[in-house]
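Justification of computing resources. Each target in the renewal requires a structure prediction run like the one illustrated here; the chain below, 122 residues long, is used simply to show the kind of job we budget for.
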Amino acid sequence: QVQLVESGGGLVQAGGSLRLSCAASGRIFSNNAMAWFRQAPGKERQFVAGITSRTASTAYADSVKGRFTISRDNAKSTVYLQMNSRKPEDTAIYYCSAGQYIRVQHTSYDFWGQGTQVFVSS
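Resulting structure tokens:
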């Protein structure tokens, strides 16, 4: 069974940086695409970024392109989300997920972490 554990959330000022980590257990990590989603209060869960397993190809939501970077370390079974130039609208709970392909629909992913809260103050 795959377990995903996010860490690194917290409070950051607008314009600041923060890095989220997601540690995965199980062999499935190395064979799955990994993605970050976020969910703000009263809104649907939104795709943020994804990375494939073998080629580490990446995809980003337009709202974060150029500011966020997703990466993975297969030796550590960990995926990262480097967030720069934070904006107040980035405030949300950030979730790590694993699935066969990178998809923007959250229903396409098989495994989820518990989420980590990120606050961006203006």
